[in-house]
Amino acid sequence: MFARRDNEPDYAVLKSRVTEGDSTSVNRYGTPIETVQSDNPLREQSLNINHDSEIGDNPDRYKQHGFYFNADNCIACHACEAACSEKNDNPAHIAFRSVGFVEGGTYPAYQRLNISMACNHCDDPVCLKGCPTRAYTKFAEYGAVLQDPDICFGCGYCTWVCPYNAPQLDPEKGQVTKCNMCVDRLEVGLKPACTSACLGNALDFGVIEDIPDNRSQAKVDIPGFPRTDITHPNIRFQQTRTTQREMTRVDQTAIKYHRSDEPSTTYEESPFIPELDPKQGFTRQWNLKKLLTSHENAHIAFTMSAQLVMGAFLWLFAGSFISDSRFELDSLSSSPAYLPGLVILVGLITTGLYKLNMHLGKPHRFYRGFYNLRYSPVSREIAGVSLFFAGLVLFTLCAFFEHSFFKVLQLIAGLIALAGLMIGGYFMYMLYRIEARPFWNHINTASSFAGTGLVLGSLFIAVFNTSAGEMPQQLNTLLLFTISIGLVIEMAGLWYHRQSLKSAKSEGAASFYEQTTTYGYAYGLRNSLLVLSLIISLSLLVTEHQSLWAYLILAGTSLISAIIGRALFYVVVIPTTMPGGFFWRNKGFVEHARETGLADMPQMGVVYEKHHAFNINELIETI
Fold first, then answer.
1. Does 508 lie in the same domain as 416?
2. Is the pLDDT of residue 335 over 80?
3. What does the alpha-carbon distance between residue 396 and residue 400 come to, in Å, rounded to a whole number?
4. DSSP β-ladder status, 255-259 and 272-276
5. How far apart (Å, rounded) are the C-alpha atoms in residues 505 and 490?
6. Hey, which of 82, 84, 225, 294 would disulfide with 97, CB 3.0 to 4.6 Å?
7. Residue 261: Cβ-neighbour burial (10 angstroms; 0-12, 13-18, 19+)
8. Residue 551 belongs to domain with CATH number
9. How would residue 614 be classed by pLDDT, with cut points 50, 70 and 90?
């Protein structure tokens, strides 16, 4: 338990201001402030902090607590950051609490608004639902959302779904950590370290909806703070000074906040709406190296290989068990390319799965990905793709034998693979429908994934079977028709995505801006190759003269287009997150520090992208 000093100052002591007679029973989201009823057996249990079985005597122990931030008082001294990092022994590149700011106006009417932010211990924590390893728990005690880094295997999905950038993925340790509400201090009647260290009395802490002394507001919006309807965060604000109509970020994120003339009617609406701030101009660039060497290359390899294999498998399964004289699908299973094709498909998806697994901070903990099937789309995707992989391997093995028993077994394996394909494919899409990442949270993600599967899967079948001999014309026509449909689906999704983002009042507009400027020429090349691929496909469909070279050219244009498109998908996404400063929490500075070597200086708070080295000793200890 945390050791409380005898002479703790009054400002560090957690006060109980709420009484039974005047307490509010629910917060503004309609959630009960009392986390468990008085007769619930969950009460009077120890948090076992550092294996200490003591139970805190705070009378508000089973009420939802939260932070209170008075923006009028914050002077951006960063004392809260320092206290938090010292308390949690964080390295320089990790901060559970950070201070950023937005600014508006010009001299002499310049205005700066500072924001200190950590985990908001939300009523509906998306990090808890998204985490595949069940490393998160929302406790009845104080309503704290706690995370166990020892359970985490470093996939980083919680950092994707959190709108407030609260979970911190440490690239050196390969695990996520976050603010724990200083529950060890709460248990002995002390406020969190950050609150106790605040010089300007800007931070406070207590039972949610309980306005501290000498304060008049408890708002849920402030310029730069993301939407509250995603998670229902437990933080309240005071900000009485009138701000400029436009408040801009000083970091490199192309977002500003525009004050709406329409007053808020619910907690979900903020008077400050995010809009595009084209601070980098409209010059188009290539940046191909930056695009194709991103941290998410493993996801590119996995999603594209999985979708290609799934698309190709549908053809081979149909060719094995559907006898149709009109399209001669059964010629696929009798082709010399049938068995080699299956083996190559198994190799492709094995490579994709290996790349994805090695992308984890702790690859040897991969099995923990199945822990949260109840909530996490990541766990469900892993389960679905694993089922597909098992079915595909068994399907391939059975294909080597002629006996009728193996034919029946192959059918069963194929049906298992189909079930895995549907489950894995659906949740491969759903895990990107993230409210905190507007660029991904669009139907275009589904059209892109489905288009890739149809186009690359069909091209794989066409190239391999054409190389092994002449294919029936009816099958050629069906393959080209499917390829054309896949290209049209992807192009339609991209057009709709473009139209949606151009006028979006969200970070999605900034993502589209990045796509058309920082990576403008690469974006144009992808679109041109997509159109060229459709022209080639339709030409081959009309002329009815297909050759291996024609298919190879079509495969080349389609594959390059798909790779660039998928790289853009990961690189340009901008999350709903808190504003940073000129250096701290500024993506532009982070990139600059890595390019120039400043990241070698620990005080910069920047480290190079890396993965946690496989620790054989840790594995042996676990076993």
1. yes
2. yes
3. 7
4. antiparallel
5. 24
6. 84
7. exposed
8. 1.20.1630.10
9. very low
623 pLDDT above the threshold of 80: no
Does residue 395 share a domain with residue 309?
yes
In this structure, is the dihedral angle defined by the CA atoms of residues 600, 604, 610 and 613, taken in order, positive or negative?
Answer: positive
For 456, the domain range is: 288-571
Do residue 531 and residue 616 come from a single domain? no
Tokens of residue 411, six digits: 């059918």
Regarding whether 549 and 425 lie in a shared domain, the answer is yes
With beta carbons less than 8 A apart as the criterion, state whether 284 and 290 touch. Answer: no
Count of domains observed in the chain: 2
Q: What is the C-alpha separation between 556 and 558, in angstroms, rounded?
A: 6
Q: How far is CA 39 from CA 14, 27, 137, 409, 557, in A?
A: 25, 21, 22, 56, 67
Phi, psi values for residue 146, rounded to 5°: -110, 150
- The answer to whether residue 591 scores a pLDDT higher than 70 is yes
Closest CA to 157 of 364, 299, 305: 299
Instruction: Give one DSSP letter per residue of 521-575, joined into a string.
Output: HHHHHHHHHHHHHHHHHHHHHHH----HHHHHHHHHHHHHHHHHHHHHHHHS---
> Distance between CA 514 and CA 506 in Å, rounded?
14
Question: pTM here?
Answer: 0.91
The pLDDT tens digits for 544-567 are 677 889 999 999 999 999 999 999
| Omega prior to 171 cis, within 30 of 0 | no
Residue 600 lies in a domain: yes
- In this structure, the answer to whether residues 598 and 567 fall within a common structural domain is no
Contact 576, 507 (CB under 8 A): yes
Residue with tokens 């697994």: 357
* CA-to-CA dists, residue 281 to 94, 254, 301, 334, 506, angstroms: 31, 10, 32, 58, 19
Q: Fill in the amino acid letter for 454.
A: L
326, 358: one domain = yes
Three-class DSSP category at 184: helix
Cβ burial 352-366 (10 Å sphere, 16+ → b, else e): bbebbbebbbbbebb
Q: How many whole angstroms separate alpha carbon 162 and alpha carbon 308?
A: 30
Q: What does the alpha-carbon distance between residue 196 and residue 15 come to, in Å, rounded to a whole number? A: 12
Instruction: State residue 365's pLDDT score.
Output: 92
- Chain length of the chain: 623
The pLDDT of residue 552 is: 93
- Examine the pLDDT at 376 and tell me if it is beyond 90: yes
> Three-state SS string across 56-95, please?
CCCCCCCECEEEEEECCCCCCCCHHHHHHHHHHCCCCCCC
- Domain-embedded: residue 12: no
Task: Name the helix (H) or strand (E) containing 312.
Answer: helix 297-321
pLDDT at position 326: 74
Judge whether 489 lies within some domain: yes
Q: Are residues 509 and 596 in the same domain?
A: no
The answer to whether 136 and 146 are in contact (CB under 8 A) is yes
Query: In the numeric block, which tokens belong to residue 340?
Result: 């080699």
Domain shared by 348 and 484, yes or no: yes
Separation CA 577–CA 7 (nearest Å): 39
